[in-house]
Amino acid sequence: MNYKISQEALGLYNSTKTHPNVIRIGIRLKREVDPEALRYAVDRCAERYPYFCVELKQNDGEWVLASNDRPVMISASRDGTALGSDEANRHLMAFSYNDAWINFDISHALTDGAGAYEVVRTLLYYYCSLRYDVSLSPEGIRLSGDTISPDEWEDPLLRLTDVKPRVPAEIGPALCLSEESGIELSEHHMSWDIAIDEKEFMRFNSENDGSPGTMTALFLSRAIEKIHPACTKDIRILLAVNMRPFLRAPMARQSLVGGVVLDYKPVMRSWPLEKQATAYRGMVFTQTMEERVLAEAAGQKALAENILALGTDRERREFAISASAATDSILTAGVSYVGKACFGDAERFIRDFRLHTNSICKTPLIEISAVNGRFILSFIQPFEDDRYLSSFLEELDDNYVSYNLLDSGRVILPEVELPF
Length: 420
Fold this sequence. Notes:
Blueprint: E1 3-4, H1 8-13, E2 22-29, H2 35-48, E3 54-59, E4 62-67, E5 74-75, E6 93-98, E7 101-107, H3 113-131, H4 150-153, H5 177-181, E8 190-197, H6 198-207, H7 212-227, E9 235-242, H8 244-247, E10 257-264, H9 273-287, H10 290-309, H11 313-329, E11 333-340, E12 350-356, E13 365-371, E14 374-381, H12 387-398, E15 404-410
Parallel strand pairs: 5-6, 9-11, 11-13
Antiparallel strand pairs: 1-4, 2-7, 2-12, 3-4, 6-7, 8-14, 8-15, 9-10, 13-14
Helix pairs in contact: 2-3, 7-12
């Protein structure tokens, strides 16, 4: 299975040492990891997801993602393996383990959180079946031996030949937290992982006309305003949107993430929480009409084509990095919610869960996961100063949302070694 890179271009060319553009999913299970059971489960995943078992190669002057039959790397370390490296057998995904944690790393250029969750479902099905000697239901799990439909690996953006790309409206710069506060950016990302009871948070959302994504974005907006009450720049949150339903491509493996812009407008700041949440829900509704989402998807396709049309890899890299920086400059922070994990029968063996990645450039990011009766909010940022985290937690306290701060520390993401 070989295919030319297309929409993967941005995610590959904008990968840097400090922003490797990698998704890491960590699962802490009830017993210490059994390496043999993990090897068995990873091999079954490799059989089920051949379109992720690839390496970058040149073919007639073009970069392609070529089939890679070498074993997917499993390392007995917390740090994992540099993706694309010889140590990783040049795969753009790898696994690692330490104590009871299994970590799955994959280039964000290949897929997004929704695509990565599919691999984790398969992994847990095979691993837990063997490790705990149980019979698990295969319902909703992609299994080795399945017939793999082209709908999984064909790029749905290539079908958007008659959709006019959306031209972004003129939008002013947003409040940049590191610049406004004079905070020094780090060579690494930090994360604070917060657990909230799923039923309680859903009840709170229902009572206040919110949803997990919009309410988290609203709490973050309010937290930022508390620190910068006199700032006249917009507080602008980008809420990630899964474009698969709009593309009629529920099985697609690609990174298919769009975005909704949530502006915390000055007029809103004196409103009660419920009215603010209703306003945010309205912004989501208007920006997720099908025509608009398809136009955004066509815009992503056009951007990838523009990158690939450049003459050299150096030009492509410079253009991709500058495009990401331009997006970052009009945002204050981001929020991403993949949706409920639905890991099936294996979920009862999960003690803890993380989904970490890097921010675009300077903006903090909250990754939301819903696993085993809890929401895990990972507050990720490219600086160590914790003032925004503290203000966010105060928002939870002020609204009587109970939480546990699980841990904090540097985000561990492997580097990506690319041949260009």
